[in-house]
Amino acid sequence: MARARAVKPKAPGLPKGARRTTPSPETLAALGADRLIGLILGETARNPGFKKLVTAALASLQGPDAVAAIVDRRLTALEGAQGYIDWQKRRAFAADLNATITVIVDELRPLDPAAALDRLRRFLAHADAVLNRVDDGNGAVQGVFERASAAFVAIVGGLPPEVAGRIATSLVSPFTDDPFGPLGILLSEMIPSIPADALAEIDAGLAEALARPEAGRSRSGHAAYRSAMRTQVLRLRQAIADRRGDPDAFIALESAIVPGGENRTAIARRLLAAGRARKALDWIRRPQDPRRRLATREDLIAGFDPRGPERERLLAEIEILDALGNSREAQALRWGCFERELDGPMLRSFLAKLPDFEDEEALQRALDHAEAFPEPHRALAFLIAWPDLHRAARLVTRRPDAWDGGLHYTILAPAADALAQDHPLAATVLYRRLIDGVFAHGRSAAYPHAARYLTELDGLAPRLEAGAIEPDADAYRAQLRREHGRKHAFWSLVRA
């Protein structure tokens, strides 16, 4: 008779399937108070940051003043320090600063939000002085100040509206003194969430600061710097205009920032949202020298490619035309954009607006245009993404010498992978161009990719008809051996 195997009972309170060694409220409780106290004391002896957190937690039992005193001592030391922090000390310094913010947020804020805000503001006010004496090559210290800014905004967001408004108003002066400084940035981040009643007073303070002839001179007398500061103040006033739903104020400020080079798209969208489509159409169609327009955040993201901002302008114009009921002209713009750029989303929008039973014919016309597009790499990218793999394969095999695997590998590699299943000849053409591109441009870092492409070619070769491509698979590999046989770093990655 088989003996029953003893089953060790589970620790009480553990969830089903929980690991016994994973720290959790249940597993830690099982250790008991004495064992946990020993672990905590051991860590406080080794870790100064952890010791600061434990000390602050104990101080919180005495009330907010005790916690604030701990923070104040550290801030006073920080404000008086002058020594340089090199890269070897940077990690410990950043950890110490981070622990200070944790104490403010986790221990002081629940007891006294106003006191927590005072300490965060004091911490941020000395950001420049601290960063100027730190080798912050990896941005670790800068990240602590960004965390402090986010914490400040979050705390203000949880306060009564009238209190939040007063705090935001108190930041007008620091912002106008230095819009790029840490306290100035705070006000910019708070505008979307502060009470609407406080916006008028803030806007008035910003306008008054701009009117002062000495505005912006406290930090630099350089004209370019003062101009940049003025622009920041005007941009903040624009954000306030948006919050107040005042497109006319937004337009006036935009014209003050860059007369004659206004962001037509931004203006038109605000007019459209306000129900003023005719005026929006007038703005979106105003001629403009692009060199006179200031670069926006969207421009930076687009890498200053004129097609990015121009596409956004075109989308706004189409939306305005639809709002005015001019669907024919809107459709003409959609089709024109597709014809010029092979813009897939624009084509989908065009097809969706067509009457029933007309979309299929229009789609075939669009795909014919894409297949005959003069820029083959863009055409291939479109057909793969649409997708129409049959047309993509036909495009590849009709123009086998058009593909540049060195400059356009980001298009050819996914295209080859997509075509490999049902179109082995087209995939073979692309994989060969990719391998040739790696060697032609001397990209040794891409040898692992080239080795994978050669493996893919080995798998595709038996599926090709005899004579489908020249040279054949064996001859192509032999050619690679002849021309690149001494590239041992590549051949060591290739299966025999």
UniProtKB/TrEMBL annotation:
**What Pfam families does this protein map onto?**
DUF6880 (PF21810)
* Disordered, as annotated region: 1-24
| Species | Methylobacterium phyllostachyos
Q: What is the lineage of its organism?
A: Bacteria, Pseudomonadati, Pseudomonadota, Alphaproteobacteria, Hyphomicrobiales
* The protein's name: Uncharacterized protein
| Source taxon at top rank | Bacteria
